[in-house]
Amino acid sequence: MKPHNTLWLKTYCPLKAHNAGLFISRGAAMHPTRVIDSHELIFVKQGELDMWEEDSVFHLEAGQTLHLFPGRQHGSTKPMPSNLKFYWIHFEIEANYNRYGHRHEDEYTPAIKVPQVACLPQPERLERLFRIFLDEQEIGALHPHAANLLTLLMLTEVMQSIEEKAAQPDHLNAVATWAHTFIRINFDRPITPSKVAEALGYNTDYLGRIYRKTYGCTLTEAIHRHRVKIACQYLLDSKLTISQIAQKCGYPDPDYFRRIFRHHMQISPGDYRNEFSRVHVNTH
């Protein structure tokens, strides 16, 4: 290949990814009490996880993340339940980064501020990054640059969880939360924005504006997003057919479900199942 036809880039990422996995609890086990030299990001997929780090205690549920720091002792406060599943990844930060996330020679570089505990509005986005990492790790095709950048994208997803919380009056946030909860409970039923609004006693347009300001999407998008999120879980964790999954997720028409799934995930349900079914799992 001619030199002038090759694009050369100097890649830089402030962190180095180690390894990752999907933990599936068999019940009654305790997370080991230990001190490690690397950072660890934990993302709860299912169940509840109770952890401590130094003097802090954390209770995590599905869709939440926990960042554990190197050099700090941590462990679990109670046995892990049998339905618990969580992703984990270890990584280290470049030694010449200071406490604000900047290199010493560039104090004005924007920093990624990762909260120690976060509740993700769209946890399926973080799970997809984990799936890509684990799939490539499993087959030995994970390039170090890709591993580092995927980890940085994971941390960016966690960072965005606090940025997406709009500064609104509490009562408006509460109304949006009610709508969000209603969708999560009734996603498998034939719900529409107008039915959500009717159930909560609000005008459809008014509720839609409040919801969009809080969650950054329309009620219709929220319904589809949650259905697709649940569909992803069925595709990876069950042997149900595409048609059966469509029915369980509120789509009587499997073809319409396929179109919605592809629109949100940029991949068909069948290809998603084939591509992300291989993960590195560790049990206890």
Brief write-up:
By secondary structure, this protein is an alpha+beta fold. The chain has helices at residues 123-138, 144-163, 170-186, 193-200, 204-215, 219-237, 242-248, 254-265, 269-276; strands spanning 15-24, 39-46, 48-53, 56-61, 64-68, 74-76, 85-93, 117-119, 281-283. It has two domains: 15-163, Regulatory protein AraC (Jelly Rolls); 170-276, Homeodomain-like (Arc Repressor Mutant, subunit A).
Please give the order of strands in the largest beta sheet. 8-5-2-7-1-9
What is the CATH third-level topology name of the largest domain? Answer: Jelly Rolls
Query: How much strand content do the residues show?
Result: 15-25%
The global form is: globular
Mind telling me the C-alpha Rg?
21 Å
Straight-line distance between termini = 50 Å
Question: Key features?
Answer:
284 residues; alpha+beta; Jelly Rolls; Arc Repressor Mutant, subunit A; three-stranded antiparallel sheet; 42% helix; 19% strand
SSE blueprint and pairings:
Blueprint: E1 15-24, E2 39-46, E3 48-53, E4 56-61, E5 64-68, E6 74-76, E7 85-93, E8 117-119, H1 123-138, H2 144-163, H3 170-186, H4 193-200, H5 204-215, H6 219-237, H7 242-248, H8 254-265, H9 269-276, E9 281-283
Parallel strand pairs: 1-9
Antiparallel strand pairs: 1-7, 2-5, 2-7, 3-4, 3-6, 5-8
Helix pairs in contact: 1-2, 3-5, 3-6, 6-8, 6-9
